[in-house]
TrEMBL record:
Protein name listed in UniProt: Lysosomal Pro-X carboxypeptidase
InterPro entries: AB_hydrolase_fold, Peptidase_S28, Ser_carbopepase_S28_SKS
GO terms classed as biological process: proteolysis
GO molecular function, one term: dipeptidyl-peptidase activity
UniProt xrefs under Pfam families: Peptidase_S28 (PF05577)
Chain ranges passing through the membrane: none
Keywords: Glycoprotein, Hydrolase, Protease, Signal
Source taxon at top rank: Eukaryota
Family: Belongs to the peptidase S28 family.
Length: 503
């Protein structure tokens, strides 16, 4: 199990995956075993000697002038001064835009910044997203997540304005007005980075948006595209593995219909507690396959690991025995596999923190503005489940008493006819993707202009390019990162040329 712990937290888009089940069950809970692996990120490193923590008095509402809008909350940001060339040399500042989780692991998991900081003599800044980690309005997490009225201040536009305020504050405090800013983000954070460049071009010279599915909202790409990629990833590894998974759903139904069927499944899959219904097992398996595809890191190849387990059939030759063999190959041969009641309590991060931030925080975001359209077509290894916007809206109303604004993201940031639009007013954005990442189906895969470029790798996985470099990195990954660095160097060189001309 330990060998896969690092692959789940580098880019915290797992909550995007959870929206797949929103249509039918409104389940925003990650399977217990996978939550344990994901949350391991927060403990990824205790080496904080180069990281200084600061808090900024942030405005609650940037877009309203009611008295309550002027309320403030403490927004956390981290700075690594180790490599900075200083304000006197107008040395650059790399700013990582936090997404839907605490900022704590980012200085260690987003290794691209540290790896390249010495070359650029860059200051490294990591800003936490409002409503996550320790950047909680209204004095407490309970109050902030209380209802739609308090959650209403949680949206991408407010987050971007937060980042703008913090960046201005940092530059003023450090007397670094001439230091160029490059913003970096991954997944939802990558969306934020690209949008920040579009909305605040006076504050940043460019953005690296890694695995940013900015076309996943509205009706820009087909809702089945995400799960099509998941299935393709497995089929490319093994046709027999793909077929076994495809046949497993009907086999689960068949066993469930038998006398004591749930007991049989509970025993066969070594669940930590008896299954209440077969969907618990089905959703666990579906999420496991999705995680493996999205985070199919070349050094560990979880899709291959699962398929090797299924094809070798170490626990028996019937369909469900093979599926269980895949689980064990991927997760490990623990005492029990599914519905583990201790997965969260084993870590010092409380269940309340995790469930509130993921279910309420991200759940609110996908029920208000980030309507991610994910469905399952007829030609995958999963059960068909078409995206149903009416049901999505109904579930959101029931859960949060709000109706999603399904077209707002494309209205506010653009999306339709994006190439034509960005050619006219956009510049200096890198959209990087790995095509094995299902979220690449909603990403930018072609250059939109000379300075808004798409860099992708056929074997890359989610946010792989902004992870730390390793001696075992494949040549194609090294090349991708070098391309990104080359482009950023060009941005900064042009900035210095323009700055000299002004002076």
């Amino acid at each position: 199990m330990k060998q896969y712990q690092f692959i789940f937290f580098i880019c915290l888009s797992l909550h995007l995956i959870e929206s797949i089940h929103l249509v039918s069950t409104f389940s925003l809970r990650t399977p217990r075993k996978l939550i344990k692996l994901h949350s391991f990120a927060r403990l990824a490193s205790t080496d904080t000697k180069d990281i200084d923590t600061f808090f900024y008095k942030q405005t609650l509402d940037h877009f309203n002038y009611k008295p309550e809008s002027y309320n403030t909350f403490d927004q956390r940001y981290l700075i690594n001064f180790k490599y900075w060339g200083g304000a006197n040399y107008s040395a650059p500042i790399f700013v990582y835009l936090g997404a839907e989780d605490a900022i704590d692991p980012s200085p260690y998991s987003v290794g691209f910044m540290i790896d390249n900081a010495p070359t650029f003599k860059a200051l490294l800044v990591y800003i936490e997203h409002r409503y996550y980690g320790k950047s909680i309005p209204f004095g407490s997490r309970e109050e902030a997540y209380k209802n739609a009225s308090t959650l209403g201040y949680l949206n991408s536009a407010q987050a971007l304005a937060d980042y703008a305020d913090v960046i201005i504050h940092i530059k003023k405090t450090l007397q670094a007005q001439n230091s160029p800013i490059v913003v970096i983000g991954g997944s939802y954070g990558g969306m934020l980075a690209s949008w920040f460049r579009l909305k605040y071009p006076h504050l940043t010279i460019g953005a690296l948006a890694s695995s940013a599915p900015i076309l996943s909202t509205d009706d820009i790409v087909h809702p089945n595209a995400y799960m099509d990629v998941v299935s393709r990833d497995f089929k490319e590894v093994s046709d027999t593995c793909y077929e076994t998974i495809l046949n497993s759903w009907s086999e689960i139904d068949r066993v469930t219909s038998e006398t004591n069927g749930l007991s049989i499944l509970s025993k066969k899959f070594n669940t930590c507690s008896p299954l209440n219904n077969s969907s618990e097992l089905s959703h666990y398996l579906e999420n496991m396959y999705v995680f493996a595809a999205q985070y199919n890191h070349p050094s560990s190849s979880p899709v291959t690991t699962i398929c090797n387990g299924i094809d070798k059939a170490s626990f028996g030759n019937d369909v469900l025995d093979k599926i269980y063999s895949g689980i064990v190959a991927f997760i490990g041969n623990d005492t029990c596999q599914i519905n583990d009641p201790t997965s969260i309590s084993e870590t010092p991060i409380s269940e309340t923190d995790i469930e509130t931030e993921t279910r309420m925080g991200w759940g609110w975001q996908i029920c208000s503005e980030l309507v991610v359209r994910h469905g399952i077509g007829n030609d995958t290894m999963f059960r068909p489940s078409p995206f149903d916007l009416e049901k999505y809206i109904s579930n959101c109303k029931e859960e949060y008493d709000v109706s999603p604004r399904s077209h707002w993201i494309s209205t506010y940031y653009g999306g339709h006819n994006l190439k034509t639009i960005l050619q006219r007013f956009g510049s200096n954005i890198i959209f990087s993707n790995g095509l094995q990442d299902p979220l690449s189906s909603g990403g930018i895969l072609h250059d939109l202009s000379k300075s808004i470029v798409a860099i992708y790798t056929k074997k890359g996985s989610h946010c792989l390019d902004i992870q730390s470099s390793s001696p075992s990195d494949p040549v194609w990954l090294i090349k991708q990162r070098k391309q990104e660095v080359k482009i950023i160097k060009r941005w900064i060189a042009q900035y210095y040329t323009d700055l000299d001309a002004l002076h």
